[in-house]
Design goal:
Layout lengths: L6 H19 L8 E11 L4 E11 L2 E6 L29 H13 L17 H8 L5 H10 L3 H10 L6
Antiparallel strand pairs: 1-2, 2-3
Helix pairs in contact: 1-2, 3-5, 4-5
Length: 168
């Protein structure tokens, strides 16, 4: 079977990503220099062309989240969460990029009143806590509670930027 990843298909996917990214930026605190990126690099071989996706989040110039780099095992396999495919299946043929996009969509669509209490069952990467930490709809008091309750290092970096010292 020959897999063809056309330029038109790549442009369509990036258009969907740009729309999702734009919607996410509407709820992110603009003071923390948060950026999220998704890129698809073409892997051209003799018999097929496959997309090689990557998600990463930066604060300033520092990368705080990087998929698939942070999610590889000791053999270089990228863990994925497709229950019908062996964990030994090779990246990029089986990866979580669409699941990550679906999680971001779910997060954006969650009402502000449910953001801290909602369980994002399909968050296998700790991304919901990163988004919570950066979410402008969460105020100082609730940010401090979040800081005490999560262990995610990327989210903690964001919380350090967002939590203002209290004056007594």
């Amino acid at each position: 079977m020959i897999i063809r990843w056309t330029l038109a298909a790549e442009k369509e996917q990036m258009s969907k990503w740009s729309k999702l990214q734009k919607e996410l930026y509407l709820i992110i605190d603009p003071t923390i220099d948060f950026q999220i990126h998704c890129a698809v690099y073409p892997m051209r071989g003799d018999r097929a062309t496959s997309p090689c996706p990557r998600y990463w989040i930066t604060i300033g110039k520092g990368i705080i989240f990087d998929y698939p780099k942070e999610f590889t095992d000791e053999n270089g396999h990228v863990s994925h969460h497709n229950e019908y495919v062996s964990q030994q299946a090779e990246y990029p043929y089986y990866c979580d990029v669409s699941l990550i996009s679906n999680l971001i969509r779910e997060y954006i669509d969650t009402p502000a009143s449910e953001i801290l209490t909602r369980s994002f069952d399909n968050d296998f990467w700790g991304l919901s806590n990163i988004l919570r930490a950066a979410d402008r709809r969460i105020g100082q008091r609730r940010l401090d509670n979040l800081r005490r309750n999560i262990k995610n290092q990327a989210a903690q970096k964001i919380l350090q930027l967002r939590i203002k010292p209290t004056v007594k």
